[in-house]
Design a protein that fits this description.
The protein contains nine helices and eight strands. With 254 residues, it is α/β, with parallel strands linked by helices. The chain has two domains: 3-49, no CATH class; 73-244, Uracil-DNA Glycosylase, subunit E. The protein is globular and about 65 Å long. It starts with 6 loop residues before the first helix and ends in a 10-residue tail after the last helix. The protein binds uracil (URA). Uracil is lined by residues 104-108, 111, 117-118, 122-123, 145, 221.
Length: 254
């Protein structure tokens, strides 16, 4: 690379490299001039749907790989949330080899306190959906959020907070390689799929996301506010259970 890079380009490049390092990508190469559309850097990694390249997680066992992602995250100060009252980072919890992964929006007060996603009232309902509804245990699945720190007053995550945090979530997904991802609520669904659609448009169909099937259902906090929608959420879970080959008995997701 040209040693006489001007300082602006140097700064753009170092941000670029840091971003991809956060994704777990360390190897870069330069294509000969005219060979590609990016005159400076090209990545060996292929783009996958999901808006970001596949992370180059080396072939480690998933539990170790997740631990290393957590280490890379460190005591994160990459976005403003670290100075807006977050108590702790809420990384994600569950089976590193889970076939099913739930992705919510952001930690709330209980999660911020305990360092684990979905441990408050919405979490209780999610647990019921997993156990009473799907016949699984919470420990069988993996649960994470779009962002890992609580936004002040539980406000909706800002776009840049999602963008800064999501490389770590993408790495978690690439390590766990679940068979199915369920996006909980419109914020999670819209952020992951980069579609600005309503819940009625988003639900009831499959999406391809980083090589995994993704379905959308209501956020448990919404179901607590409007329990009449539980039967709709149950339809979504049944679609997921069918895909996972789970028996659909006469259960309810209450
Ligand atoms: N709501 C979320 O989206 N995530 C949590 O972890 C808790 C509540």
């Amino acid at each position: 690379m040209n040693r006489k890079l001007d300082s602006e380009l140097r700064s753009v490049l170092s941000n670029y490299v840091r971003y991809y390092n956060d994704l777990g990508i360390y190897d870069f190469y330069r294509r000969p001039p005219g060979a590609g559309d990016n005159p400076v850097l090209n990545l060996r990694n292929l783009k996958r749907s999901g808006g970001m390249p596949a992370a180059a997680e080396p072939d480690r066992d998933p539990a170790t790989a997740l631990r290393l992602i957590r280490e890379d995250l460190g005591d994160c100060t990459r976005c403003p949330l670290h100075k807006l009252g977050r108590k702790q980072i809420v990384f994600g919890v569950g089976n590193p080899g889970a076939r099913l992964m739930f992705i919510g929006e952001a930690p709330g007060a209980d999660e911020d306190e305990q360092g684990e996603p979905f441990v408050g009232r919405a979490g209780q309902l999610l647990n019921n959906m997993i156990t009473n509804g799907m016949g699984l245990r919470r420990e069988d699945v993996y649960i994470a959020n779009i962002i890992k720190c609580r936004p002040p007053n539980n406000r909706t995550p800002e776009r840049d907070e999602c963008q800064i945090c999501s490389p770590f979530l993408m790495r978690q997904i690439d390590v766990i390689r679940p068979q199915v991802i369920v996006a909980l609520g419109s914020i999670a669904a819209r952020t992951l799929l980069a579609i600005n659609a309503s819940m009625s448009e988003l639900r009831g169909r499959w999406y391809e996301f980083r090589g995994t099937k993704l379905a959308v259902t209501y956020h448990p906090a919404f179901l607590l506010r409007d329990p009449r929608q539980k039967k709709e959420a149950w339809k979504d879970l049944q679609m997921v259970m069918k895909e996972l080959g789970l028996p659909i008995a006469l259960r309810t997701a209450d």
